[in-house]
């Protein structure tokens, strides 16, 4: 499978993770009995001053959940954009993809320790897809019989892509 396709699949998985996390988080209603209801009510009704802002633990819980969902969306968008870059320069995306692999492994560890397994399955799937994307990016230049593009080749490709975008400013105007 090609690097671009693997990255796009990983982006879609991250988008599904965003949609599921956001939907479940925003529609959750305590259903585990009166003890859970009491905890949620206590989190919502007791306010404290945190760094000069009056917040409840519920505010932080809700904010962190939305922050996590937003990170899933951000990951989906960035992986989709990396797939576009990989079309011409697959070897350049490897360090960034490796960072996403490390992040998803870290998320998996945290989810298993502090939450429950289901959300980690998305992170595991994304990490596997990204690992395969790195493997195909590594081998794509030699598998086709070509060596990796030189800096001059990359510059020519960028110049081709920038045709019609308007004039470049001289170095003195940048």
What's the layout of helices and strands?
Blueprint: H1 3-27, H2 34-45, E1 47-50, E2 53-56, H3 57-89, H4 94-114, H5 118-143, H6 151-162
Antiparallel strand pairs: 1-2
Helix pairs in contact: 1-3, 1-5, 4-5
Summed up:
Helix content is 74%, strand content 5%. By secondary structure, the protein is mostly helical. It has a two-stranded antiparallel ribbon with strand order 1-2.
User: β content, as a range?
Assistant: under 5%
Number of helices: 6
Fraction in helix? over 70%
Largest sheet: 2 strands, antiparallel
Give the rounded overall mean pLDDT.
86
Query: Judging from the principal axes of the Cα atoms, what is the shape?
Result: elongated
* Model regions low in confidence, pLDDT < 50 over at least 5 residues: 140-147
Distance between the termini: 41 Å
Helix/strand-derived class?
mainly alpha
Q: N-to-C SSE series?
A: HHEEHHHH
Number of strands: 2
What does this 3D model show about the protein?
With 174 residues, the chain is mainly α. The protein has 6 helices and 2 strands; from the N terminus they run H-H-E-E-H-H-H-H. A two-stranded antiparallel ribbon has the order 1-2. The chain is elongated.
Features:
mainly alpha; two-stranded antiparallel sheet; 6 helices; 2 strands; 74% helix
């Amino acid at each position: 499978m090609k690097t671009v396709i693997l990255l796009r699949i990983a982006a879609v998985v991250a988008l599904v993770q965003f949609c599921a996390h956001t939907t479940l988080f925003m529609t959750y209603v305590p259903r585990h009995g009166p003890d859970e209801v009491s905890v949620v009510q206590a989190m919502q009704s007791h306010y404290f001053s945190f760094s000069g802002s009056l917040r409840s633990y519920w505010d932080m819980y809700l904010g962190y959940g939305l922050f996590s969902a937003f990170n899933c969306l951000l990951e989906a968008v960035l992986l989709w954009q990396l797939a576009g870059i990989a079309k011409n320069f697959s070897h350049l995306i490897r360090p960034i993809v490796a960072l996403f692999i490390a992040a998803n492994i870290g998320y998996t560890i945290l989810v298993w320790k502090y939450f429950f397994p289901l959300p980690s399955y998305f992170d595991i799937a994304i990490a596997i897809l990204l690992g395969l994307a790195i493997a195909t990016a590594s081998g794509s230049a030699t598998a086709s019989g070509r060596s990796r593009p030189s800096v001059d080749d990359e510059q020519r490709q960028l110049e081709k892509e920038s045709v019609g975008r308007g004039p470049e400013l001289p170095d003195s105007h940048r």
